[in-house]
Amino acid sequence: MAKQQQIxxxxxxxxxxxRLQVLINENQGKVAKGRSxxxxxxxxxxxxxxxxxxxRVGEFxxxxxxxxxxxxxxxxxx
Length: 78
What we know:
Layout: H1 2-13, E1 19-28, E2 31-36, E3 47-50, E4 60-68, E5 73-77
Parallel strand pairs: 3-5
Antiparallel strand pairs: 1-2, 1-4, 2-3, 4-5
């Protein structure tokens, strides 16, 4: 399992600085959670999205990825 996590983390780090289209699944004001076209619901990690305006569930946004942890990406709406 540790090797799998290393590989996944490596692949996520390659996405830092890149833009992804993200579907918003959860809204928490100006911070939301969503998934990209590459992420399966309830299986893969999520994209944590920060925005200057409130996001709506079901909305698609373009996100620039800023950082990652073991399974999730963190980015900002562009």
